Amino acid sequence: MTSEKVLYVFACGAPAASDLVALVESAQAEDWHVRVIATPMGAKFLDAERLVALTGGPVRTDFRRPDETSNGLPPADAVVAAPVTFNSVNKWALGITDTVAVGMLCELVGMGVPIVAVPQVKAELASHVAFGRNLDVLRSMGVRVLFDPAAPPHARMPDWEKVLAELNGLLDG
């Protein structure tokens, strides 16, 4: 177990997940002990080998088996869910826990763990009525959502430094 603060980073299947190593390294530079959890599609975008080397733990993508007594993760002090896809935003808001990543996000909201969510979606999906409503649902549950539908599509996903700054601001109150 570590005395450092623990950050869970959740990644879904969107382009920014391919650069998740940079987020992990930036968080570690701020003394976070980082663990990575991914949706099955998100795992396809990740450099899992590099993330395992950086974090000292596996990239979690599956539910634990019945014979496993623990998921091997230290308790989270905070969460960054980035990038979060259209599909995962909608499932998370509705409580559909068919992946370990979305299931854990639902649990962490219920536990009151501070969460910053950063969707990365196509403009066509961002304009879908369910997406906007479900972002509002997440906000109503206390999730800090970084998404500006009025921004040009290329500018909707903030850089990792802004994501961590937002997390720090959330934690500072």
Automatic annotation (TrEMBL):
SUPFAM superfamilies per the UniProt record, alphabetical: Homo-oligomeric flavin-containing Cys decarboxylases, HFCD
Cross-referenced InterPro entries: Flavin_trans-like, Flavoprotein
Superkingdom: Bacteria
Domain Flavoprotein: 8-166
Protein name, as recorded: Flavoprotein
